């Protein structure tokens, strides 16, 4: 019996990186998992690649193409998962984007893109998951992906930081509003995790003149990690499975830092 056996979960941003790892770890502990992403072809491949992993636990796996900023698509994703699994117990709002720009160069387009996916996408994801859970009448868990950028403002990524601070406040607001329905809302805040997002951030920082060579930005960001190294997605999933499990039932409104001791707040 796994730690989340029988739980029906959706993970957004699950075509790669942290989201994929969250979904795979949930499967390993017996949950049914819907991998969801704006990259529909890639997330379908991820689901197919995990068929054996699911079968080994007697769990089920499916996938959905979704733009988390589009409420109708989010609703359709939830309807799909509920159609396959019969219910929704846990929703991870993990999809996120970044696009570094020097603070003084940040444009409305840059702001709206990042706040749209990371902020509004989280809001819509919470609302629509909660609507489903309220209709079911048996509570549930919503888990949001925050960041060290939820705790400190960094230059060159100001809208990203603002969007991740928004994730913290949405987690608190949602926790307060949804407690009466037995729905917990929590989040986790990774530090520097070696994923495609960071590789792209590295390239973008060079492009805007904030770094001179590949890897320089990641090294600079990582130099104060007490654990002495950047994270891999596998460093994150012990906590995310915990937040999806009954072991975290008395937690709500909280963000768990998983940053190797980078920001002690
Ligand atoms: P990633 O870029 O590897 O994966 C993000 C996924 O989100 C991609 O598959 C992408 O297609 C998907 N996505 C983007 N826009 C979407 C949309 N509108 N609708 C649905 N899916 C969409 O990134 P990652 O490093 O795995 O990051 C996952 C989450 O963790 C993000 O919220 C990110 O901000 C957060 N985070 C990452 C780090 C890090 O160091 N990598 C640190 C802190 C927080």
Write the element-wise H/E pattern from the N-terminal end onward: EHEHHEHEHEHEHHHE
Oligomer: single chain
Query: What is the average per-residue confidence, as pLDDT, rounded to a whole number?
Result: 97
As residue ranges, the low-confidence spans are none
Gross geometry: globular
Structural class: alpha/beta
**How many distinct helices?**
9
Q: How far apart are the termini? A: 36 Å
Percentage of residues in strands:
5-15%
Helical percent range? 40-55%
User: How many beta strands in the DSSP annotation?
Assistant: 7
How does the major sheet shape up? 7 strands, parallel
Write out the distinct hetero groups bound to the structure. nicotinamide-adenine-dinucleotide
In the sheet with the most strands, the strands line up as 3-2-1-4-5-6-7
Rg, rounded, reads: 18 Å
């Amino acid at each position: 019996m796994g730690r989340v056996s029988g739980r029906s979960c959706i993970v957004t941003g699950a075509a790669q990186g942290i989201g994929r790892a969250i979904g795979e770890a949930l499967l390993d502990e017996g949950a049914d998992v819907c991998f969801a992403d704006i990259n529909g072809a890639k997330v379908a491949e991820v689901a197919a690649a995990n068929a054996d992993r699911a079968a080994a636990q007697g769990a089920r796996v499916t996938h959905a193409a979704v733009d988390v900023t589009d409420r109708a698509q989010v609703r359709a994703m939830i309807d799909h998962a509920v159609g396959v699994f019969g219910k929704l117990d846990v929703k991870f709002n993990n999809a996120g984007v970044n696009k570094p720009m020097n603070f003084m160069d940040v444009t409305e387009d840059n702001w709206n893109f990042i706040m749209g996916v990371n902020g509004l996408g989280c809001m819509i994801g919470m609302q629509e998951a909660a609507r489903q859970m309220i209709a079911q009448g048996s509570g549930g868990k919503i888990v949001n992906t925050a960041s060290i950028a939820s705790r400190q403002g960094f230059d060159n990524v100001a809208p990203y930081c603002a969007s991740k601070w928004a994730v913290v406040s949405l987690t608190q607001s949602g926790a307060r509003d949804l407690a009466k329905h037995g729905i917990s809302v929590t989040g986790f805040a990774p530090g520097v995790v070696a994923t495609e997002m960071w590789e792209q951030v590295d390239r973008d920082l060079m492009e805007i003149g904030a770094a001179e060579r590949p890897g320089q930005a990641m090294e600079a960001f990582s130099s104060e990690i007490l654990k002495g190294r950047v994270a891999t997605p596998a460093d994150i999933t012990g906590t995310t499975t915990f937040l999806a499990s009954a072991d975290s039932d008395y937690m709500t409104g909280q963000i768990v830092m998983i940053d190797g001791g980078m920001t002690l707040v």
